[in-house]
Design brief:
By secondary structure, the chain is mainly alpha-helical. The chain has one domain. Helices cover about 80% and strands about 0% of the residues. The protein is globular.
Length: about 200
């Protein structure tokens, strides 16, 4: 069980460490110090549900609905383009008085963006349902499989809360519009690059 748990934890961490739409959004909310706990909790619980589904053997649904990956890529790519464009538009405007003061959108709009970046992102499904689910198949004993799933889920939750609250360490550097413009530029380009990765193979 210990071996399965260690494998699950580090597999999850290694997958989630890559810069992605979800991580960039959590980082931005952490820097704003706004809705950090609910955003981290939402992302962590969402990953927990997907990891549990992957470990339980959710992959067969894709076999039953082969159109699903394409639909997710179209929906996710469209949203990422829209969100990336809003961040680049913010860079162009250069008006960051509210960000510097720590203002953010309301809780529900913020969670709505978090939900879209999570559930419309095919990469999330690939990592959780696909890769983590596939790796879990090496464990046939139910207790080992459970340990693997719990450890993978724990790694995800720990990462999001560490990212969200750890971002506060960068707060002293986020007191100027120039720094916020750099951050939003990086986030905007990241979103568009992920969208391109999703949509170009469909062309």
């Amino acid at each position: 069980m210990i071996s399965a748990a260690v494998t699950g934890f580090f597999t999850s961490i290694s997958l989630i460490l890559a810069i992605g739409a979800q991580n960039a959004f959590v980082l931005r909310q952490g820097l704003l110090r706004a809705h950090v706990f609910p955003v981290c909790l939402f992302c962590g619980l969402s990953d927990a549900l997907l990891i549990a589904a992957g470990v339980a053997g959710f992959g067969y649904i894709v076999d039953l609905a082969p159109w699903l990956p394409t639909a997710m890529a179209l929906g996710g790519g469209g949203f990422l383009i829209a969100y990336g464009a809003t961040r680049l538009y913010a860079v162009w405007l250069g008006e960051y008085a509210l960000e510097i003061e720590g203002h953010s959108a309301g809780l529900w709009p913020t969670l709505g963006i978090a939900a879209a970046l999570t559930w419309l992102n095919p990469h999330v499904y690939l990592d959780t349902l696909g890769l983590i689910g596939a790796i879990s198949t090496q464990y046939t004993d139910s207790s080992e499989k459970l340990a693997f799933g719990i450890a993978a889920t724990t790694a995800s939750v720990v990462f999001f809360f560490s990212l969200g609250y750890g971002a506060r360490l960068l707060a002293p550097y986020m007191k100027s519009p120039h720094t916020w413009r750099i951050l939003d530029f990086i986030i905007g380009i990241t979103m568009l690059a992920i969208a391109a990765g999703l949509l170009l193979p469909l062309i």
